[in-house]
Amino acid sequence: MMDNYNFKRGERLILELLGSPPDNIIAGEVVDCAEHRIALKNMSTYGRRSSSNVVIHGPYQFYRPEILSIRVFKNEDDDGVVVEESKDKVGMFTKSHKTPQSNAAAGINCKDTILIDKVEYERLKDMSHNYIYISCFDSRYYDAMNYIESCETIGVADITTSYEKFARINLIIISTWDQVYIFDFLVLLSNSTNKFPTELEVILKHKDIKKILHDSRLLTLILSNQYNIHIKNIFDTKVADVAARKKLGEATRNKQTRTLEECLKDYFNFPPILNIQETIKLDRWSKRPLSEKLKFQAAQSAAFLILLKNHLENILLKDFYQCVTDYAYSLQQCSAIDVPKKILNDTVCDILENMKLS
Prior knowledge:
By secondary structure, the protein is an alpha/beta fold. It has 14 helices and 14 strands. The chain has three domains: about 110 residues, no CATH class; about 180 residues, Ribonuclease H-like superfamily/Ribonuclease H (Nucleotidyltransferase, domain 5, 2-Layer Sandwich); about 25 residues, no CATH class. GO terms for molecular function: 3'-5' exonuclease activity; nucleic acid binding. InterPro entries: 3'-5'_exonuclease_dom (IPR002562), piRNA_biogenesis_EXD1 (IPR052144), RNaseH-like_sf (IPR012337), RNaseH_sf (IPR036397).
């Protein structure tokens, strides 16, 4: 006999159902549970805008055979301690007031927990839906350029007509912290003698704006080969993922690099929302007008890059940040006489001498 589903009424869940992502990803509030079913209300699918007119009020029943996985959100209590939902030995869900590290040490299974805050997850989902699609050089284009140029960090994704050196750029997608812009190059350049937009060129070449890409090779090749544009200040999350896994002790020599979707699943336990297999079918992206579904898929390819970059950067610089903290508090145990001596001493202290950056 299978264990009953055991979630609290009002708890928000994410269900991955049989079907094609992202429309098979359902979020909703628990009404009740039984051995083989879960009833949800106030639902939305990941592939649709979450505005009030598309919320499915329900309740609707979902049965065990159609449910591939169930995810819950991590939360934080008033003290900043992570409160995680995880399955115990009999498959029931229990709360554990532990940090992720202590959860792992205790052998608690956290595979069903989305490892970012619910508010942040919903913000990123909404940002993917609320993209700004730009296909002409109007006020929206120039407003976008002005805003993007004011940002220190942006995510950049591209969809091309092929995976070849002389491929045309189909779309360039840029994400800031709070907005996604889709630039339709097939339309934008059709009336401009194939001249690359000057304002966007300035942004890509700006040394003070960090550009986050997941596999930067093809876009940099096309831009340099066809437009003599060389992107500056690149952070490649595909490269950073390999470096982070090595730092965490994983053997990566014989493993392939990972897709953006694989990274989001591994680091944050996201459900399969990006539908990578559909995105790589490039012939689907050359037809105009683009469907709302394709625009949404395009927006997703850039919306999560800043989140992923910040996480990978924290892994790669963990030892450095710890050293900074140790150094900042290194005078706490010193006597009043020793404090000025240490401050005025220019020699490298033991903390900095023993700093681990490998």
